[in-house]
Amino acid sequence: MAKILDGLKISKDIKHEIKAEVEKILDNKKRAPHLVAILVGNNGASQAYVNSKVKDCEDVGFRSSLLKFPATVSEAELLEKIEELNQSKSVDGFIVQLPLPKQIDQEKIIMAIDPRKDVDGFHPENFGKMALEMDTFLPATPFGILTLLERYGIETKGKHCVIIGRSRIVGKPMSILMGRKDFPGNSTVTLTHSYTPHIEKFTQSADIVITALGDPGFLKSEMIKKDAIIVDVGITRVDDDSVKGYHLAGDVDFESCAEKASWITPVPGGVGPMTRAMLLKNTLLAYKTSVY
Ligand code: GUN
């Protein structure tokens, strides 16, 4: 039976570490780190994510601001706000919650963010630095997965890591990070996606499988090898009458895979809380580089 990679527990440890740093900052009569989140429209999942990020800031003693815009907001209006945040001396980092409505060019918005305040690590300058193993903000979800593996002492060197999904937020950066020379990297990486025929041919030989698909229960036990390490990034809302609403489902068929794997992340309580903790880490880093 697989052991649990407990993202909720590790994220709490990290939040305690960050809180202790903030207390020292405040003792030194410096201002608290400040994260701003921009939320556009009324996507339920995005609203929930952003509210959690604001709550996380409160938990560790950061200042936070939530800027809400209607789904009809123009690109120009958003760009104007971004420029204001870029210039603001009281803002250390900010994020624009994705996805954005269709009339807005997502890449144009991301390009407008000052890379020094891009705590999501989405700007091409930061993405390039990440790929070249230079110090920068790492995208929160891949950073969270690496930290989770690191804190559990999981060896990645020389392992075959198969990633399912090539999104700009998870799959693509994850594929780069797992192959980097620093720990926990040094894996041989296979990046699979919607045009990969017979994904199971790859996953069956993988030491580590990272799924970021949004397809509940996609990864079945027949698709993995014995003692594999399974990291589930999927988090899909599935209608559920028994709870008069929905429950969250991962990409991994947890019951069957947990019997075969050596380590596995649960959903919820695995990668999700780690992503949130890494946003705090990046914000603290942005603060330290600007205020110190
Ligand atoms: N949408 C889904 N995940 C993320 C994230 O990590 N950051 C932002 N800005 N939007 C997201």
UniProtKB/TrEMBL annotation:
Gene Ontology cellular-component terms listed: cytosol
Binding-site residues for NADP(+), renumbered to this chain: G165, R166, S167, I235
Tetrahydrofolate dehydrogenase/cyclohydrolase NAD(P)-binding domain residues: 139-289
Reaction catalyzed: (6R)-5,10-methenyltetrahydrofolate + H2O = (6R)-10-formyltetrahydrofolate + H(+); (6R)-5,10-methylene-5,6,7,8-tetrahydrofolate + NADP(+) = (6R)-5,10-methenyltetrahydrofolate + NADPH
Keywords (A to Z) from UniProt: Amino-acid biosynthesis, Histidine biosynthesis, Hydrolase, Methionine biosynthesis, Multifunctional enzyme, NADP, One-carbon metabolism, Oxidoreductase, Purine biosynthesis
EC number: 1.5.1.5, 3.5.4.9
Residue ranges of domain Tetrahydrofolate dehydrogenase/cyclohydrolase catalytic in the record: 5-120
Record's keyword annotation contains Zinc-finger: no
SUPFAM superfamilies: Aminoacid dehydrogenase-like, N-terminal domain, NAD(P)-binding Rossmann-fold domains
Pfam families attached to this UniProt entry: THF_DHG_CYH, THF_DHG_CYH_C
PROSITE patterns, alphabetized: THF_DHG_CYH_1 (PS00766)
Pathway assigned to this chain's UniProt record: One-carbon metabolism; tetrahydrofolate interconversion
One GO biological process term: methionine biosynthetic process
Subunit structure: Homodimer.
Protein's recorded name: Bifunctional protein FolD
